[in-house]
Amino acid sequence: MRVISTRPGVYILLAALTLPASGSLTAQPVDPNIAVTGERLPDPSEMTAGPEIKGVITARNGQRIKVTLPDGTNQVIAVSEATRIRSGGGLFGGGGTQTVDSLLNGLPVTVKTWQYTGGLVASQITFKNSDLRTAMMIRNGTNQRFEEQSAATEALRSRMGDIDKYNIKNTTNVYFDTGKAVLSASAKADLCATASQAEAMENALILVVGYTDSTGSDEVNQAISDRRANNVIHFLQQACHWKPYRMLTPTGMASADPLADNSTAAGRAQNRRVSVNILVSKSVDGI
Hints:
287 residues, alpha+beta, CATH 3.30.1330.60, CATH 2.40.50.140, five-stranded mixed sheet, 6 helices, disordered N terminus
């Protein structure tokens, strides 16, 4: 189901969203939640085998990375001098050893870990050469693939301080069961249809916002709305092939800005949603 929305909640959210203070796509955001000062990692002989983590790097701070999993949860993993970092999947299956500098935001990785009392340490990090090239292009913003979307890239580099600079071209809502963040078959179809619609628009960006009904505590609702938004982001990128550099940061708004009355079951069902907004900067709309 698609609806055109000009709801004030979207305007408030957009006015609050900003890129990192540098305003640059080349910067690697520092996440203070993953910083550890003065910690000495134990010797591998003092650790036990940990889980294998598959996800996308979403932040890095020194020798620690944050990996976002497909279900929207995050895992902080330390990188030590003993960590093997390798790429593969080249034209002839080639690859090689990489350095910690290759661990860029937006890079899908598979991480084998050791476990100790302080958390997880990566024993091996692997990724595809093609994914590394894509992450580097997103970071640098200089590859020829980006020239046709230069206006959209510039929009991402600028600070989003005023919704009046953007036209909301369309809003698609997808809905969820109570307490769940799993996408239904119809939701998946609607998301790919929305991505196709946005792809047909010059310089379009997508903003994803997750919501809940009023049932549950604020803390629980915030976590669920975040998971719903992240799951939609992952599906749009992985299944619908929407480019990460044309995606704005997903946001969970908990039970704020309800579409319907939360006092009825039908109203709560409408409020358990993720809104996928197609935006075009007014400065380039129609170019």
